[in-house]
Amino acid sequence: MTTKIIFRNLFQHPLSTLLSLLLLTCGTGIISMLLVTRHQLATKMDRELQDIDLVVGAKGSPLQLVLSAVYQLDAPTGNILLKDADRIAALPLVKEAIPLAYGDSYRSYRIVGTDSNYLGKYNCVFSGGRIFNTDMEAVIGSEVAAHTGLKIGDTFAGMHGLSDNGHAHTAFKYRVTGILMENNTVVDKLVLTNVASVWKIHDDGDEEKEITALLIKYRSPQAMISLPRMINETTPMQAAIPQLEIKRLFSLMGVGIKTLQAIAFAIVLLSGLSVFIALYTRLKERKYELALARAMGSSRMLISCLLLCEGLIMVISGFILGIMLSRVGLLYLSKYSRMSVFRISLLPEEWHLLLVTLLLGILAAALPAIQAFRLNISKTLAHE
Amino acid sequence: MLQAIQLQFAYNAHTIFQYPDLACNRDTPLLITGRSGTGKTTLLHLLACLLKPAGGQLLIDGTDTGLLSNSKLDQFRGRHIGIVYQSSHFMSALSILDNILLPRFFSRYTPDTGKALQLAARLQIDHLLHKRPAELSKGEQQRVSIARALINNSQLLLADEPTSSLDDDNAYRVIQLLLEQAAMSHAMLIVVTHDARLKQHFSNLIYLER
Predict the structure, then answer these.
(1) B11 CB contacts (<8 Å, ≥6 apart)?
(2) Which domains does chain B have, with CATH numbers?
(3) How many angstroms separate the CA of residue B182 from the nearest CA in chain A?
(4) How far does A318 lie from chain B, in Å, by closest CA?
(5) What is the ipTM of this complex?
(6) 20 to 30 A from A141, CA-CA: which of A261, A331, B11, B15?
(7) Which structural domain range is residue A74 located in?
(8) Separation CA A250–CA B54 (nearest Å)
(9) How far apart are CA A128 and CA A249, in angstroms?
(10) Nearest-10 crossing angle of helices A242-295, A2-12
(11) Are residue A220 and residue A122 in the same domain, yes or no?
(12) Mutate to test the interface with B, among A287, A294, A296 (most CBs of B within 10 A)
């Protein structure tokens, strides 16, 4: 009967209930989506950073260099001379230097010339085949395999540039020698080959050999202080520290996220207000009903609790609907963007959001509940 | 047996109402009359334990209601006293059947649908049980109020101006209905009214004067 009374009363005024619910759903939905997107991006970017201490590439925007070389997101800043890169790689402060050479793509998946260390860095496991041994052999990531249908032994020609509309290098065809298992890193979306293959395709004869970037791991923390400065000041290349650049990226995004969050919080507050107004105006109509309930033996506590429950049920269902909305939104976002941001379980921040909405519900129902508690039954029944 | 001994009610420090002693048992329903402004409704609310008296004693079937704590009094009222109000009010969101069953819920009894159906049949409202209160006529609403007041096997049935806006025929019918239903439920009946037409139906009468 308790639930019946509560729900019947909520459905008694479907429009005002719907409005409050809608506001709550939108507010919590937007906040949750922002929280999850941010969290998923941060963890994914962190994971893909692996232990890359420094990225060396052509001069330009350091953020662009990091995005292109580590996350395969932006266009490269340009090329660097192989001999310059080799000089850095040979320094005693450098433990490991992985070369990256860009230039082509296949059906908009990037073809990256590198070496076996790159696969080792991302803990790649072959689902079939083997690594590239000679020129024009290629290893493809799981997503590339799934989308292009390439199998081991198949050949394909790279397209010049990183978009789909370059000209095809039909004179040189790659042969697939291995397919990697999915490991949720950038490698899933890459075609990997050796650096020499990239040179071979773009060989104009007498030009000096170039690569695009170098991923460096330090031998000792000491390198952290001297190496970036040395590269930036004494070579035509630039050194970018990925951790720093990512932090900068998130602080740039942070302004936008904060603004959106503030708007979403305003919506949630508004919804709290609308729950309050709905309960409060209904209280006036329901005063007599509540007095009647008291006359029928209800304790003060019970009718206050009924009102409190109405408020809580509103905010809880709003929160649940909001989370559902956010998960559906994330699913679509993941489908149409390059990064998967979907997750089903709640973040700690989302549990905090639940707490905030619960508090809001209690607050909204508090005044009506207190008034119901203090209701003068006799007066209310006598003056209808 | 109901006994009210020297009941007093204080509207404020200066205005104190002193009510005459009154008694009522199951065989002799009580009619309380008086002009408006003589504190009839207040007396009804005192007898219904909706108000606490400033002085005096109210005994209902041996229970001294003045000795009950607030929550005990709420429960006592719910379980033993049924009230038919001057104009009928309901929980508008609930069906007639649920409204009749409400006192059982509020006094923490199990819902007794069988008893509700039996009362509804007795009061000839069994065809209305699934409607909403707003869909009923005034007369039908009053019958539902009576069923609701009797659902907990109340010891005391109180009626506030049950005939005030009715013509002679209907007033007669309503008062007969109340007398009959109270008798069938073995409940004491106290009617508070300014309607002089009802006097002929009661042998136990109290006239309130200022």
Answers:
(1) B17
(2) 2-207 (3.40.50.300)
(3) 18
(4) 22
(5) 0.87
(6) A331
(7) 54-240
(8) 70
(9) 37
(10) 110
(11) yes
(12) A296
